[in-house]
Amino acid sequence: MPFKRYVEIGRVGLVNYGKEYGRIVVIVDVIDQNRALVDAPDMVRSQMNFKRISLTDIKIDINRVPKKKALIEAMEKADVKNKWEKSSWGRRLIVQKRRAALNDFDRFKLMLAKIKRGGLIRQELAKLKKENTA
Amino acid sequence: MKTILSSETMDIPDGVKIKINARVIEVEGPRGKLSRDFKHLNLDFQLIKDEEGKKKLKIDAWFATRKTSAAIRTALSHVENLITGVTKGYRYKMRFVYAHFPINASITNSNTAIEIRNFLGEKKITAMQFFDRLSVPCFEVCCAKCMDSSVLFQISSVSYDTCYMQVRKVDMLDGVTILRSEKVKDELVLDGNDIELVSRSAALINQKCHVKNKDIRKFLDGIYVSEKGTVVVEE
Prior knowledge:
The complex is a heterodimer. Chain A folds into two domains: 9-100, SH3 type barrels (Roll); 102-133. Helices cover 46% and strands 21% of the residues of chain A. Chain A has four helices and five strands; from the N terminus they run βββββαααα. The N and C termini of chain A lie far apart (48 Å). By secondary structure, chain B is an alpha+beta fold. Chain B has helices spanning 66-87, 195-208, and strands at 3-11, 17-21, 24-29, 32-37, 44-49, 55-64, 90-97, 104-108, 113-117, 125-129, 135-136, 162-165, 168-171, 177-180, 187-192, 222-230. In chain B, a hairpin with a 5-residue loop joins strand 5 and strand 6. The radius of gyration of chain B is 25 Å and the shape is elongated. The A-B interface holds A 1-3, 33 and B 2, 4, 44, 46, 60, 62-63. Chain A: Belongs to the eukaryotic ribosomal protein eL14 family. Chain A: One of its GO terms (molecular function) is mRNA binding. Chain A: Residues 45-117 form the Large ribosomal subunit protein eL14 domain. Chain A: InterPro entries: Rib_uL2_dom2, Ribosomal_eL14, Ribosomal_eL14_dom, Translation_prot_SH3-like_sf.
């Protein structure tokens, strides 16, 4: 019930609103009650309101406002990219992106694949049912 | 201004079991079980274990205004009262105070109600039935010191068989018992686990004996709370 993910220096977050939507950022300093200084390897360090950030479970070890090089080193050390892509949240986002980028032919292929999968599942289920009643 | 985090902790003694679920606190101890619901407060209640392994109750308020931070300590005090209620119990003692007319109290209903008579010498009569279908409405015989009755109306050939005395009756709340103290004259003892119920029962008795239409600096009669303590007294 108590909170587990805290806003702190080194907390990795996901931007959930605005121009930088979907980007992974690191909280690098806290400006005041509502805003944080936020940084990522491929972006200019800037301020962001906490309401635009969703906190993740990942935290890295940095000092307050590190230089870009130090930040990139710390992120490599903590292996943020892989941890994110392996986490269920990260995987879900990747799948959503893929689905949104399908063209019509891909959707057709997807439909066939789903039907085939459904057919296989039903076959196995019928087999199990037969074993049970027999 | 909103304080980012304000919190306070409190020790929980051994021998008391506390359960917290969704801001409803249940306390269980040697004298019974009490529960209290804090859903009107926006606070985080947590049970934590200290370094030495002692159990503590921690209350957090995030981004709290002044009033919310104040509520933290009052919630802790309420829980403390629950704990002492369940381990030591609460005992409130009340004394009868009267100048001329002794207050006559009888405890009924297996120690859960009290009837008060002769407060300030009053005899309030209601429902006198004279004949079968004719019932005469009440008239009051007033006055404390001189027994003069002001008769408001008269009916010829009056003969009454039954006359009911109006008595001041107070029912104790749930789990509160009342008894007349043996050794001390004119004392009532109210016992219970929940401080809110015990003190409210005492207040109900006190309020039933307010003096009306008189100078209360002179007519000091009543039943007053004389002592607030616990049932189990530690030396």
